[in-house]
């Protein structure tokens, strides 16, 4: 896998603290056992053959699962209690994490749960490294190296500053938002959630003006303070941040997916209640009512 990562025998040998000859011999032995070439050599450079790419893509999750088994075995030997580390992106609020973890807490009342926020590009590396057991994000596509399932859908409201013209409304329609500026947490085309929110507006019949929030990692409701933009949020209707922000419900509201990610070829016991669909979420946070849960392993 080190050779597949670096596409360089020397750097792979340095990472593995082996000689180049030992690495080359191991590759040749593996090719002989599999009866297929794994590397294509062109001058001083090497490339993966189609067989090599298949072995890399299938092997990484197996190695990750093996390392997870080692960690679980050592934890059992040390008689450590059940512990689930939930990493979540800023688009998933801490309140949502608490609601979504309810079936786990109900099934394992003595288990220790830790929630920590991380940025989207940190989520899969954290899961692979074992610093997170499961990741929660807004998404529907499946990363290459992990398993995924949409576990819940959350009702969207809008947030505006207290001085925004919409702030006095008890409820808004999607038509009310046409012509308003939408604030996002990532550029469209680079963020699934940004693309999803843009698509929500397009399905309502308008192309929203948009800007990207330059403050990351704070509560989504803070994005509209001191400006004239609106944001889609999952916070309950009401006033926030000492009255500087107002969250307003949407008539016939759109719903945003919550996707769980975990290591392929593994199934920690604490994840079973989450993935079995036995969620009893609070008002405004619910499983998608009209389709079965989708799981990709």
Kindly estimate the percentage of residues that lie in beta strands according to DSSP: 15-25%
Helices and strands, in N-to-C order? HHHEEHEHHEHEEEEHEEEEEHEE
Q: Helix count? A: 9
The CATH topology of the largest domain is given as D-Maltodextrin-Binding Protein, domain 2
User: Can you tell me the number of structural domains?
Assistant: 3
Mean pLDDT: 86
Overall shape: it is: elongated
Kindly provide the name of the CATH class of the largest domain: Alpha Beta
Number of strands: 15
| Biggest sheet details | 7 strands, mixed
Low-confidence stretches: 278-297
The CATH H-level homologous superfamily of the largest domain = Periplasmic binding protein-like II
The CATH architecture name of the largest domain reads: 3-Layer(aba) Sandwich
- What is the CA-atom radius of gyration, in angstroms? 23 Å
Commentary on this structure:
With 297 residues, the protein is an alpha+beta fold. The chain folds into three domains: 75 residues, Winged helix-like DNA-binding domain superfamily/Winged helix DNA-binding domain (Arc Repressor Mutant, subunit A), CATH 1.10.10; 112 residues, D-Maltodextrin-Binding Protein, domain 2 (3-Layer(aba) Sandwich); 97 residues, 3-Layer(aba) Sandwich (D-Maltodextrin-Binding Protein, domain 2). Helices cover 32% and strands 24% of the residues. The chain is built from nine helices and 15 strands. Strands 3, 4, 5, 6, 13, 14 and 15 form a seven-stranded mixed beta sheet that branches. Strand 1 and strand 2 form a beta hairpin. The longest helix has 28 residues. It is elongated, with a radius of gyration of 23 Å. The protein starts with a helix and ends with a strand.
């Amino acid at each position: 896998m080190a050779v597949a990562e670096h596409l360089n025998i020397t750097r792979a040998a340095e990472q593995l603290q082996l000689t180049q000859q030992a690495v080359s011999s191991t590759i040749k032995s593996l090719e002989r056992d599999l009866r297929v070439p794994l590397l294509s050599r062109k001058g001083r450079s090497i490339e993966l053959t189609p067989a090599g790419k298949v072995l890399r893509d299938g092997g990484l999750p197996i190695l990750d699962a093996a390392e997870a088994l080692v960690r679980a075995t050592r934890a059992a030997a040390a008689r450590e209690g059940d512990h689930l580390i939930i990493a979540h992106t800023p688009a998933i609020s801490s309140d949502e994490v608490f609601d979504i973890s309810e079936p786990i807490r109900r099934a394992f009342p003595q288990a220790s749960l830790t929630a920590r926020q991380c940025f989207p590009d940190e989520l899969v590396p954290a899961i692979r490294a074992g610093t997170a057991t499961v990741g929660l994000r807004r998404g529907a596509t499946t990363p290459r190296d992990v398993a995924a399932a949409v576990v819940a859908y959350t009702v969207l409201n809008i947030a505006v500053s207290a001085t925004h013209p919409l702030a006095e409304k008890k409820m808004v329609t999607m038509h009310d938002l046409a012509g308003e500026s939408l604030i996002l947490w990532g550029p469209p085309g680079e963020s699934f959630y940004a693309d999803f929110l843009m698509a929500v507006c397009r399905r309502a019949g308008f192309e929203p003006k948009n800007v990207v929030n330059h403050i990351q990692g704070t509560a989504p409701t803070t994005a509209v303070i001191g400006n004239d933009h609106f944001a889609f949020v999952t916070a309950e209707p009401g006033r926030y941040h000492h009255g500087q922000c107002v969250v307003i419900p949407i008539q016939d509201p759109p719903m945003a997916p919550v996707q769980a990610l975990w290591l392929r070829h593994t199934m920690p016991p604490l994840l079973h209640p989450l993935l079995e669909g036995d969620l009893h979420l609070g008002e405004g946070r619910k499983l998608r009512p009209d389709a079965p849960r989708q799981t990709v392993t």
